[in-house]
Amino acid sequence: MLPIKIIPINQNYLEFWHRIYNDPATRQHQPIQPTTMAEQEVMLNRFVDHDLANNTLPSYKWILIESESSQPIGFASFHRLQIEQGIGRIGYSISPEFWGKGYATQAVVQLTSLIFRKTNMERLEAVCSIHNPASQRVLDKAGFKYEGVRRDYLRIRDERIDHHSYAILKSDWLAK
Ligand SMILES: CC(C)(COP(=O)(O)OP(=O)(O)OC[C@H]1O[C@@H](n2cnc3c(N)ncnc32)[C@H](O)[C@@H]1OP(=O)(O)O)[C@@H](O)C(=O)NCCC(=O)NCCS
């Protein structure tokens, strides 16, 4: 398995991000709508400020890079759900041609470590559609604990879908 690195998203990756974001295979189990390049650029500009220590920033986006080839292979996100309570959520997507190489698991492990080191988060959550066993497996492998099903949790293409709920606590991460 080749190592990956995660870097804050920037303008150089706009086209890549737009392509993967709009790929039907990537969107299949996610509540995201197709975008134009102009809309994607507006979204990207919300993530230009990337100071993890700044509690007032709601969301962050990273591009995942295959270290050896320097190719972008996916993206990941972190959102502050409850600042005072130290609760956040992560998400991730890998380009289909790179599936099955362990990259999403690596990304989640790296992201978890980065967030617990650089923010005041004490609990990181992740949810995945009950129709997305690969994502479930990623969270299991990355040390997240299964917490049950959130019924009809997110609307994906006009249908509310049950989602598996996972979380890792800072204390879990420190004990590793
Ligand atoms: C889900 C996703 C992130 C996985 O990325 P990935 O880089 O292939 O993940 P990894 O290689 O780290 O691990 C995938 C694991 O799922 C397993 N898997 C794949 N398809 C599976 C299936 N249909 N049923 C059960 N397990 C499956 C793989 O075998 C692997 O487990 P293993 O290492 O024990 O063999 C990727 O498919 C993706 O980006 N999908 C579209 C976007 C998305 O769904 N994001 C998550 C939203 S919650």
Short structural summary:
This protein is α+β, with helices and mostly antiparallel strands and 176 residues long. It is 30% helix and 35% strand. It has a seven-stranded mixed beta sheet, with helices on both faces.
Structure report:
This protein is of the alpha+beta class. Helices cover 30% and strands 35% of the residues. The protein has helices at residues 14-21, 24-27, 37-45, 103-118, 133-141, 170-175, and strands spanning 4-8, 59-66, 72-82, 87-94, 123-129, 145-156, 159-169. It has a seven-stranded mixed sheet with strand order 1-2-3-4-5-7-6, with helices on both faces. The radius of gyration is 15 Å and the shape is globular. The model has no long low-confidence stretch (mean pLDDT 97). Coenzyme A binds next to strand 4, helix 4 and helix 5.
